[in-house]
Design a protein that fits this description.
about 190 residues; mainly beta; about 15% helix; elongated; single chain; eight-stranded antiparallel barrel; Porin
Length: about 190
């Protein structure tokens, strides 16, 4: 019980100390849920993907330009091959599941009241299974382009096209909806 009192005391002291600082930094951290609609070769073998991500951004002095770092996970379940659709469901054979962990750097440019464009590049770590059920892991170059709307702190909604340079080509259109926290005190208007 004494540990809880000590933790509460430390949090109280630190919150009082940080409340005296006008600006901690121009950094922000956001968490979001994602829906990804497969495109090109991925659309033939996999269903819509679901996942989540975290995005860190550092805003520069003009607040219209930020460097970003984003990572998360998206899972695409496999579809049943067309040759098995006409047969009874005795066989539960499907295309492999793709688990993707993208790690991307970006540059966000904000236009007007919260509308932004953000190109990104990075690496995606792909976890899947081979023809005989063995685990397959590889990393591939990734590029993406986001367009969205955000408020600070607050809502962040974006849509993007993302392509992973692998065989097969793993491309999708993603929808991101999340909430962003800032590490600075907000002025009350």
């Amino acid at each position: 019980m004494r540990n809880w009192y000590f933790l509460f005391f430390i949090l109280l002291i630190s919150s009082r100390a940080f409340s005296q600082i006008e600006t901690l930094s121009d950094a922000e951290l956001g968490f979001s849920g994602e829906v990804a609609v497969p495109a090109k070769e991925l659309a033939a073998s996999n269903k819509t993907g679901f996942g989540g991500s975290a995005k860190f951004a550092y805003n520069f002095t003009d607040k219209n330009f930020a460097l970003t770092f984003q990572s998360g996970i998206i899972v695409f379940n496999g579809k049943q091959p067309d040759s098995l659709n006409s047969m009874p469901n005795l066989l539960k054979e499907t295309y492999p599941i793709y688990n993707m962990v993208p790690v991307k750097l970006g540059a966000r440019v904000t236009f007007g009241p919260g509308i932004y464009a953000e190109p990104q590049i990075g690496t995606t770590f792909v976890f899947t299974s081979g023809h005989f059920g063995e685990s397959v892991f590889y990393a591939a170059f990734t590029y993406a382009f986001n367009v969205g709307y955000h408020t600070l702190p607050g809502l962040d909604i974006g849509i993007r096209y993302e392509s992973i340079s692998a065989a097969p080509n793993l491309s999708f259109i993603g929808l991101r909806c999340g909430y962003t926290f800032t590490f600075r005190r907000q002025d009350i208007y």
